[in-house]
Amino acid sequence: MELCVALDLPTKEENLQLVKIIKKYNVWLKIGLRTYIRDGEDFLLEIKKINPDFKIFLDLKLYDIPNTMADAAESIMGLGVDMFNIHASAGKRAMSEVMTRLKKYKKRPLVLAVTALTSFSEDEFNTIYEKNIASKTNQFAKEAMESGLDGVVCSAFESESIKKITSKDFMTLTPGIRPFGEDAGDQRRVADIAFAKEVFVDFIVVGRPIYQDANPSQVVKKILELS
Ligand code: C5P
């Protein structure tokens, strides 16, 4: 299981400080909306200067019409990131269009589909999708696999059943991880590391439990020992 550290701090300087503190570890760095909108491609270059071996997960959760999503995916190709994500609810046609466009490149990043945000409670999810989380995420995962994606973003609670209905090689990436039972914050479906391992999660995403700790390096070390 691999660790993605979410770089969700309020300023570029604080994010870079965190990257420096954890630079000796073999981890992925997750760059989300706030950071990418504010700091852009330059930020990616600055990270690579600190340690060129860091793998980058660009978490922009694309959701638009198929052609616009595929155009954006091609622009992402130019950034040299290792993984990015799109919304499964954009539909099979959009997901397939993205993957078809990426076919012409020799080496492409991993592409994952977001199923249900881990901040959703069952009720909140039902209001929007009119289905329960478990059955809808299974459906999204199947559609993502059929569209040629590499895996999905889901909560740890869906990982095992998704692997069953897709394939054990179809990846799951799970945010909402509270490694040692820390405060859930706005997340609603949180799991710890032992559980994530048990259900064959490929990537865990951890943000606040690392960057809000007084000793982020120690937390990363402890997570990696258990992963
Ligand atoms: O601080 P925390 O560990 O909750 O951070 C989780 C990260 O994962 C945040 O950057 C959040 O945007 C992201 N994320 C999520 N749920 C998803 C997809 C991404 O929490 N389904």
What can you see in these coordinates?
This protein has helices at residues 12-21, 33-50, 66-77, 92-102, 122-129, 133-146, 156-165, 193-198, 208-211, 216-226, and strands at residues 2-6, 28-32, 55-62, 83-87, 110-114, 151-153, 171-174, 203-206. The relative contact order is 0.15. The radius of gyration is 17 Å and the shape is globular. It is an alpha/beta fold. Helices cover 46% and strands 17% of the residues. It has one domain: TIM Barrel. Helix 6 (133-146) crosses helix 7. The protein has ten helices and eight strands. Strand 6, helix 7 and strand 7 (171-174) form a beta-alpha-beta unit. The termini are close together. Strands 1-2-3-4-5-6-7-8 form an eight-stranded parallel barrel, surrounded by four helices. The site of cytidine-5'-monophosphate has 16 residues, from strand 8.
- Structure class: alpha/beta
Q: What characterizes the major β-sheet?
A: 8 strands, parallel, barrel
CATH topology: TIM Barrel
Number of strand elements: 8
- CATH architecture level-2 label: Alpha-Beta Barrel
As a percent range, the share of helical residues equals 40-55%
Order of adjacent strands in the largest pleated sheet: 1-2-3-4-5-6-7-8
- What are the low-pLDDT stretches, counting only 5+ consecutive residues below 50? none
| Mean pLDDT, all residues | 96
Brief digest:
The protein is 46% helix and 17% strand. The chain is α/β, with parallel strands linked by helices and 227 residues long.
